[in-house]
Each structure stands twice: as C-alpha cells, then as structure tokens.
Design brief:
By secondary structure, this protein is α/β, with parallel strands linked by helices. The protein contains 12 helices and 8 strands. It has one domain: Alpha-Beta Barrel (TIM Barrel). It has an 8-stranded parallel beta sheet. Helix 10 runs parallel beside helix 11. The termini are far apart.
Length: about 300
C-alpha cells in the first residue's frame, strides 16, 4: 500500500521539513567553532589503530555477566559491547561494573538497546525520548558510540517515504548525539533473521548516512548479516569505507567463529588493512570451543593481518 497523495497543509509541512533538512546539512559543513556555537560538538576521533571488542550477548548464555567480562579480557580484547543490560542496573551496579571493567583494562565501546526504530514516525515510536535516555546511559558508561536499528517496514508508506523518515530522524539523532560528543551507527539486519525489518542492507544504510551528511552518523557493517542476504562484502567496503563506523564479525552459517563457514575473513581483513580501517572490530558469535581459546584465536588471526 502506498502513501496517499499530499496537498494543502501537508505539502506545506513537507516544504518546511525540506528547509529544515537543508539547514541541518549546512550545519554539518560548518567548522567546529560554528558547530559549538549552536550546541553541536564534533565527535571525538577514534583512537588510531584497530582495536578488538566482543558483543557480550553472544557469551551470556554460557556464563554470568562478570565471567563474560573476564573471558573477553583473558582473550586479549580491549572492549565489550552491550545490548541493554545496563537498563536494569542500579547506580551501585553501574559503579561496580565500571570498576570491574577498569580492573580488566576493558572499555565499553558501543551500546544498543533503543527499541524505537529510526525509520518509524516520531509521533508513534517515541524515538527521540528513548534516544535521549540511551545517550545519557552512554555518557554514564563512558561509551562513545550507540547502535540504532531501523524498525519494521510500514505498509502505509512507500520505501522512499520511509527512507525520508529515517533520514529526518537520524538528522535529529546526529544533533542530540553531538551535544554529548557521541557517535551513532545504524545497523542493517538480514531478512532471514527479521523478514519485517526496513533496513536490511549496508548499501541502503550507506545511502541513508550520506543523505544525513553528519560526521557523527555512520554504518555498522555487520559482515554476518550482509553475507546472509546479499554477499559482495569486499566491494562495498572499498566503495564506502569512509562511512563505516564499526565492523561486526561472525561466520555463515550458524553465527560461529570466523573460519567455520563460508566468509573469507583473511581476505576481508587484508582489505580493511589496505583501506586503513582504524576503528573497532567486534566479534559477535557463539563460540564452538572453549570461549577463551576461541576468542583468542579469532582476535589474533585478525590482528596479524589488519595491523
């Protein structure tokens, strides 16, 4: 079902929205001083050199949260990523876990957990309020980056109309995140895992990020998700590396360690090195062997090539 034709007041609203989007794109082109004067801040630049993280939800069925942190640290990683575990933490829990992370020389490099999709209308999704709370959590966790999902396809909108909703919401997200010196990455999910998802490919994600035009909005390139639906992984890296804000790693099928399936990870790591990728690579898989040994092997295999 397509969206109905628009006229009258609705068309005027669209014109005002277009002007707002133009103004926001202009803001992104201003210098740092001008951005600061409007309450914006440029995102903090990533540390030089690839660092390695693990998305903890993939371990939490095997061990309690504290033990998961120990496994990741023992395997030589520098970061962990969370999917909303912190929502249920008390102030004392947060203090204790952050102290534990410091003692293990770990940081939280990225968090997800906003339930409202950025491709849904604001008036029905609650996206801004949920994002505001999530950004505050990122600040409290000393985490520089948040992961956002699109939400479902909406039959009452054309794909083009829903894409514009996504761009509008992400422009607003860019401003909100920049005020806290944070970065946003958007993650496509493959259609086998979620047949109803709006954003299913990194190709579409890259186009949306380019349309937003904000320096602190990038793409989470999850190689597992992209391989399941579309493949052609390396060419998309070559064409869009400037928009890649985070890499996620697991093999297909099964979401297990690199080397257990069909993705040629050594070639991908060589390409990342050639393209001078210098951000986080996060493993997000179910270990099939001892977790410490598995995570160590996956990290060292990647590290030998990308560094």
């Amino acid at each position: 079902m397509t969206a109905p034709a628009r006229s009258g007041p609705v068309r005027q609203d669209m014109v005002r929205a277009k002007i707002t989007r133009m103004n926001r794109r202009d803001l992104c082109k201003l210098g740092t001083a001008a951005l600061l004067s409007r309450g914006w801040a440029q995102p903090a630049p990533p540390a030089r050199g690839v660092r390695f993280s693990f998305m903890l939800w993939a371990l939490e069925k095997q061990a309690p949260f504290d033990r998961c942190l120990e496994i990741v640290s023992q395997a030589g990683y520098q970061g962990v990523e969370l999917v909303g575990e912190f929502h249920d933490w008390s102030a004392e829990d947060r203090r204790r876990y952050l102290a534990r992370l410091r003692s293990l020389n770990l940081v939280i490099d990225s968090i997800s957990g906003v339930k409202a999709g950025f491709a849904l209308p604001v008036e029905t999704s609650g996206f801004p309020s949920q994002l505001a709370a999530h950004l505050q959590s990122a600040v409290e966790l000393n985490c520089p980056q948040v992961i956002l999902l699109s939400g479902k396809r909406l039959p009452m909108f054309t794909p083009e109309a829903q894409r514009q909703i996504a761009v509008n919401n992400l422009e607003r997200a860019a401003e909100m995140a920049a005020q806290k010196n944070l970065e946003v990455v958007i993650e496509p999910i493959d259609l086998l895992e979620d047949p109803t998802i709006f954003l299913a490919s990194v190709s579409d994600a890259f186009e949306i990020v380019k349309a937003v035009g904000a320096p602190n909005v990038k793409v989470l390139y999850d190689l597992y998700h992209e391989q399941r639906s579309f493949g052609n992984l390396i060419e998309k890296l070559e064409q869009n590396i400037a928009q890649v804000g985070l890499i996620h790693v697991a093999d297909v099928p099964g979401r297990h360690e690199p080397g257990t399936g069909e993705i040629d990870y050594p070639n991908i790591y060589r390409k990342l090195a050639e393209l001078h990728y210098d951000r986080w690579i996060a493993m997000e898989y179910y270990p099939t062997t001892d977790p410490v040994q598995s995570l160590t092997k996956s990290r060292t295999a990647a590290q030998r090539i990308v560094r």
